[in-house]
Amino acid sequence: MVQVIPAHIKNVWDEWNIRGIVILSLSLQTILILLAPLRKRTSNRFLALVLWLSYLLADWSANFVIGLIAKNQGKELKPDDLPQDKKLMALWAPFLLLHLGGPDTITAYSLEDNALWHRHFLGLALQAISGAYVVIQSLPNSLWVIILLLFIAGTLKYLERTIALYLASSDKFRGSMLEVPDSDSTETRPSGKEDDSMATENYTQYGRPLRLENPGNLTHLEILQFAFWFFNNFKSLVVNNIFSSEQRGESREFFKNLTNEEALRILEVELGFIYEGLYTKVSVLHTWVGALTRTIALGSLLSAFGIFHYRTKKSHEFHGADIVITYILFLVGIALDFVSLLMILPSDWTFAVISRINEDEVDSGSWIDPALKWLLGLKKLHWKKQICCGGVEHEVLNTPFLIQRWAGSIKLFNFIAYSVKADIKRMHDVKGRRRRLVWKTILYPFTSVSNISKKLCKKIAIWNDDLHQYMKDVTGQWSGDNPVAHYLIIIVEFWFMIPHCFTFIGSYITNFLGIDDLLDEISLIRSVHSEPLTKELWEFIFDELKSRLQRPRKERRKTKAGKKGWDSGNIELDMADPERLMRYIADVDFDRSLMLWHIATELCYQEEVPISSCDKDREFSKILSDYMMYLLIMQPKLMSEVAGIGKIRFRDTLAEAGKFYKRWHIENLRDVRRASHKILSVEIEIHPRDVKGNKSKSVLFEARALAKELNKIKKQSVDSDEESMWKVVSKVWMELLFHAASNCDATARMDQLSKGGELLIFVWLALAHLGLGSQLSSSANGLSETI
């Protein structure tokens, strides 16, 4: 009989399968503990892949090895096996229960894991039974005291994880904000005001924030305390709950008196609390139950190690490799517990719990407050002055990576640059030219080979076509009635069709495997780049938000697009004839309007030559335009409420752009400015929308018409007191940004917190706290579907 697996490989597997997977399980726990805190600071896809695999394999490896240990306990001893060796392996079963409890830094990889807390609770019971079965098989066992202590520690850690998942579930978030019914008050409560009673339990529990006496002078500790207060009282924003007019008014009054940077710092810390509440054990460990269970678990682990080390005879009873593995499990397990503790102690949540908001001016606060202020000062926002945009100095966010609370950057995608395959040009380069030069030097051999191969393939294709045509002409001239020449022509045709056959086969394979979208996605990802958030951009956004508080609701116009959910009536254009631009806003869907204004903004941006006195509105319009395009194309889940058929419009517009570039022979120039000039140079007498109808969703030349209108406004504003063209464009982008933030998907919004965060989430939370978001409207038509 032929053995598929050689005998020596089977012997190695039988001897080392349990040992190897136990070490794998411990390694996965180490990876999760050390790397999980980084995912709120970056959207790096490689890090996300490593954490995803580790998170899934951690549960699989622990479950699998418990089954192997149980199977091993039932085997008969081999002649060379030590008599007590199986009893030592039975000791590893509670260690695996300890691993299933998961690290403190990550309980859930995604929000869906929190909804499965019932499954984890059932898993706790089943794993405890499996571990007990393994131990019973090993009885009588001299290590039973150690095993019992480890069972206690493992069960408590698994219980912590289950409780953390339950507390982070959407039902718990929603239910925790409901007021306990009061029989005296319900009789006198007017009908239709039920929504004013929501979310008041924690509102009274955590007290009221201080009056903002000196805006601009908040200490780091006060920033933290206010953020913690807002998190506890408004955390049901996560599930789109609505609030009372009292809460809404107090939040609005507080935030409108903040400086721009103070608002950013509070929002940053508050979103950090939301992340920790959704994805870590922090909310459990900072309760008396969590402190008790962790103390017992750590004490049991230390006691078990002490008994094993000092009172167990190991030299002749156990295999040497098994003793080493057991020591590794103990020492690394204890070390990881202390590392987790060291990560939790300096966290914002810990500082918030041990400090308090001083509501009485006579109360000077806790004695530990000065130390907390100093420690929190290390985590403050760091701004770096940088010369960019034609010599203008900006302050860009440059907080050191290990103390960041979020990525601190925004991602940009430009349609025209992607359509002509142009190289990415950054507006702000925090890393500096020297570092980029070093990386280019390192990667030069690889990029050179890639570029040379692309050029060579292109030349070979041209030579192939030219040679094919030449051979056809030659054979056609002397073929005449010669039958041999006809066969030669067939052979030549076949030979020159080989490259096209390979192209056809490759296309067929990609279509058959269904990976066309994947290849397109990879191409899109390569065209995305990050820019640091600038202080000026945040000030521009937050000032615009606060200015909306002064606008009477009655001035908001109702439009056709407003009925579709795109509330374009909030835009106030200081122009002689605003209707010239409103046709590109009021009469189109959100996704169409976004693409129209994105392409038009780029066309106008490329038409101007950068000057030393760079127009801030021009720069803001460019950044927001590319950012919103990135959200529409690369974040479909986040924008699902407003994206519409954005992907279809993008595809059709890209196809039309490709045809246009080929017609003008500029498809290989990789020049955004040249492509923009060519698009603007096209003369169209009839509006593109009237020509195409519904046959194509492309907006390329409709955006060109919008750019022409914007250029007319630019010329008119020079001779009048009207707003500049870029001021008008920036207002439109503000409206697009605010609408997208108010209507972004709740699940994807919270999911982004574990991927480095998004500027859109900051805008959403700022809208909510200023009472401008729909989730704070007492006239809402009930609660939205939530996570």
UniProtKB/TrEMBL annotation:
UniProt key word Aminoacyl-tRNA synthetase: no
Region (Disordered): 178-199
Cited InterPro entries: DUF4220, DUF594
UniProt keyword Membrane, yes or no: yes
Domain of life of the source: Eukaryota
Bias kind Basic and acidic residues: ranges: 186-196
A Pfam family recorded for this sequence: DUF4220
All residue ranges annotated as the DUF4220 domain in the record: 52-417
Protein keywords: Membrane, Transmembrane, Transmembrane helix
Transmembrane segments: 16-35, 47-70, 90-109, 142-159, 291-311, 323-345
Name listed for the protein in its UniProt record: DUF4220 domain-containing protein
Taxonomic source organism: Capsella rubella
Taxonomic placement: Eukaryota, Viridiplantae, Streptophyta, Embryophyta, Tracheophyta
